[in-house]
Amino acid sequence: LGVYYAMGVQKEERFSKGGFILSAIASAVGLGNIWKFPYITGEHGGAAFFLLFIICLLLVGLPLLLAELAIGRSSRASAASSFTKLGGGGRSWRIAGLLQVLTPFLILCFYVVVVGWTFHYAVLAFSGSLQAGTDFGGVFKQFIGGYMPIVWQAISMMLIGWIVVKGVSGGIERFNKILIPTMAVLLLLLMIRSVTLPGAGEGISFFLKPDFSQLTPESALVALGHAFFSLSLGMGILLTYGAYVDRRQSLGPAALAIGAGDLIYALIAGLIIFPTIFSFGIAPNEGPSLVFIALPAAFSVMPLGTLFGGLFFVLLAIAALTSAVSILEVPVAFAKEQWGWSRTKAVWTIAGISFLCGIPLAVSLGMRPDLGFLGKSLFDWIDFLTSNILLPVSGLIVTIFAGYYWKQAGEAAGLSARWFRIWLFMLRYIIPILMLLVLLHTSGILKL
Ligand code: PFF
């Protein structure tokens, strides 16, 4: 081994089998599950939307997940060069690859701002500052209007960098092995608290008893877009993680396990949030402010609310942190491959630049409302550009590459002949159309 290193050959970074599945679940379970999923489910009428989400996970999410993992593992390259390495010749596949690194970098810039908010709220909750009768909307506004979001953003970025710098198995996998079970315990504790609240039954039935009359064509596209986001697709993450997966690991069962993990965490998050808000008479369609304004109000009047509120925000912080870890790894893998940087140099350079780029986004929501245009803050613009435009475009690229260009897709995915035919059919004919519809809808061209 000594000779190996002396020759300048770096030991390749790899996940263990279980560590890979846990790390992909850790990436999937994020603010999307605990913050966004409950509020869009609330806005689209509850249980029927949840069913739709499950169908989208199965029909679109899992085939794309498998495609990204298979491309990553076969190319053993960063997300930027996986297409070209597998035979996507020409400039356009190179550009398509670069997009798989640019998009996660942009997401990282604003996602870390929100990671910071969750840490701030965990501290607020535990310190007992979220008392009954507080104007929670005012507290939130005052917080994002000041300097503290930047301080928390810096702390969060350092923590994320500190995990990623330790490497794939020594950092990402090692921390996820601790944090995923921690999240499971917190979720279960919080679920027991919320389903035993008086009036919880109404929230449970809103979430689990379908009323199909509430569904609109728009709900279908929202569910589809969310299934895609929730599995961390189109962000280069699974292309990158795929490159660290052992040759002998079966990707089909792994994809199923990751999808199931994501779904279970979303289900439990719903079972925490809906009973709580119904029990305290809060409307389920509050929108994005649900988690930072409506829930603190509920915790403030609940028995042992300081403890449970604190635990809830710790849960949210861990979920956000582990997703941010996975997205930082994408540009890091790229910089190592492209410029031959060491992991340490790549992590701290990218974390630093992304932190600096995130500052104008953070303050555009508070003290610098002039940083924005056409009625949207800079923060909202970057969120809109990535979530609504770049992610569906990335999804389209992956499905077209795996469905039409890549000749070895079958062997790489390791499916039986029958499943391979179904998978290819979905990638070729169904998913491109659906992704195109999502793109037209989220970009505002298709109005429903
Ligand atoms: N699946 C993640 C979530 O639900 O939050 C999506 C994600 C967003 C992953 C941002 C990573 C990230 F930085």
UniProtKB/TrEMBL annotation:
Location in the cell: Membrane
One Gene Ontology molecular-function label: symporter activity
Bilayer-crossing regions: 20-40, 46-66, 101-124, 144-165, 177-200, 220-242, 263-284, 304-334, 346-365, 385-406, 427-446
Keywords: Membrane, Symport, Transmembrane, Transmembrane helix, Transport
Membrane topology designation: Multi-pass membrane protein
Keyword Cell wall biogenesis/degradation: no
Family: Belongs to the sodium:neurotransmitter symporter (SNF) (TC 2.A.22) family.
Name of protein: Transporter
